[in-house]
Write a structure and sequence with these properties.
The structure is a single chain. With 395 residues, the protein is of the alpha/beta class. The chain contains 12 helices and 16 strands. The chain has helices spanning 2-9, 14-27, 44-50, 57-69, 88-102, 108-121, 123-134, 196-199, 231-239, 289-293, 330-343, 352-388; strands at residues 37-42, 74-77, 137-145, 186-191, 204-209, 217-218, 220-223, 226-229, 247-248, 256-257, 260-261, 269-270, 286-288, 306-311, 320-321, 327-328. The strands form 4 sheets. Strands 1, 2, 3, 4, 5, 7, 8, 13 and 14 form a 9-stranded mixed β-sheet that branches. Strand 9 and strand 10 (256-257) form a beta hairpin. It is elongated.
Length: 395
């Protein structure tokens, strides 16, 4: 009996929860996705025009500027920005300019070409400037999940990322006692934060997983002593003009945004609804990034919208299977999660379901104890019968 409860305590039956979630998504009535969410896709069509990914950062800077003209509610970037693009070519370009000037071959036309090339090579600076001008920007911070027990070694969050941690969340006193599930907040083994020049001008940074598991979505992740919000949570918060100060979880209460429950489980995860579009269409408007760049998509399409920019091409990222059975990218899965948070349409178990699960576990335990006891009695009886035919059976 103790074994069964212990297995439940450490989450040994979580696979059953995932199966129940998948079935719930597939057999519940479809609802409309949040109408203000749109996706700008780094897709095959864009790569045919712009070349292989990753592109120079000035491309993303121009995309940000164009989208900003439409005055969106918030823009989120799901791709990592944890490293800078090489500046070695910039030094070579400057040396070339000096040589041409010394040789009196630096005409106005050549000089303009050099300056245009320099702008391209300063793509990181352009992208950071476009973030500052845009206003509400949310960046992603990929992480790898830890499966090892916590050690005394505490990783540190970079100084420039400290302001993006959740300060109004306490997880030490969430345990309800034995028989209840032990809170198992997701822990990050390694994080890949955006460079300081990118994170400084933005309003929020949220974590994203480096896998295609579209089951329960961690709303919060522990890294060392810090609690970090998910990218989807901060997209939902920033779309309402809220910040990390509006995310809290104290004592036995689950995570809340602006005082409203987020319907998370005891592991601080949510199970988002996955929406269906008409026919085989996506539940969200998805625009190819090249169509935004060449003006095929009017910037007014993004007015007051929640814009998610990310890679969707299966040539770059592996598609994962959503609970609905559809193969989608992590960027599109994020759109579903943000919509579910804003619509408050997460799947969740009621509080009494935990007790029902425990009662069933105890019943199964008693059943197996009875079966094992009966087998032992039958085995002993058969052994004694054989012995009576020989030397007898001890009483």
């Amino acid at each position: 009996m103790l074994l069964f409860l212990t297995v439940a305590e450490v989450g040994g039956f979580s696979g059953l929860d995932r199966k129940a979630y998948d079935l719930g998504v597939q057999f519940t009535a479809s609802k409309d996705a949040h109408e203000d969410i749109v996706v700008i896709a780094i897709d095959d069509k864009s790569m045919q025009k712009l070349g292989a990914w990753p592109w120079p950062r000035d491309v993303m800077a121009e995309t940000t500027r164009l989208v900003t003209r439409g005055v969106p509610r918030v823009i989120g970037f799901t791709m990592p920005l944890d490293s800078g693009q090489s500046r070695a070519s910039l030094g070579s370009l400057n040396e070339l300019g000096k040589i041409l000037k010394q040789e009196n071959k630096l005409s106005g036309r050549v000089n303009r070409a050099l300056r245009a090339t320099e702008l391209i090579l300063r793509g990181d600076d352009q992208l950071a400037a476009s973030f500052k001008a845009a206003g509400r920007i949310v960046l992603s911070m990929p992480y790898t999940e830890s499966s090892e027990p916590e050690s005394g070694l505490t990783p540190g969050l970079p100084d420039h990322m400290q302001r993006y941690a959740l300060v109004r969340v306490r997880i030490n006193n969430l345990n309800h006692g034995f028989g209840w599930p032990t809170p198992g907040i997701t822990r990050a083994a390694e994080i890949f934060p955006p460079l300081e020049k990118f994170s400084r001008p933005v309003g929020a940074v949220g974590v994203v997983r480096l896998n295609e598991n579209f089951g329960g979505e961690p709303l919060m992740v522990k890294y060392g002593d810090q609690i970090l919000p998910s990218f989807a949570l901060m997209m939902a918060a920033r779309s309402k003009g809220l910040s990390t100060q509006n995310v809290e979880s104290q004592g036995f209460s689950g995570p809340m945004l602006d005082g409203k429950s987020l319907s998370a489980d005891h592991n601080l995860r949510i199970y988002p609804r996955y929406y269906s579009g008409e026919g085989n269409k996506s539940a969200f408007p998805i625009y190819s990034l090249i169509d935004v760049l060449d003006g095929s998509i009017d910037a007014q399409q993004f007015k007051d919208k929640i814009v998610i920019v990310g890679v969707t091409s299966p040539r770059i990222v592996r598609l994962g299977q959503a609970p609905s059975g559809e193969a989608i990218s992590a960027t599109v899965a994020t759109a579903h999660t943000v919509s579910s948070l804003l619509n408050n349409e997460q799947y969740h178990l009621p509080d009494w379901a935990v007790w029902v699960e425990r009662v069933l576990i105890i019943a199964i335990g008693f059943f197996f104890m009875g079966v094992i006891g009966r087998v032992r009695r039958i085995s002993r009886s058969g052994s004694c019968s054989r012995r009576r035919r020989g030397w007898g059976c001890a009483s």
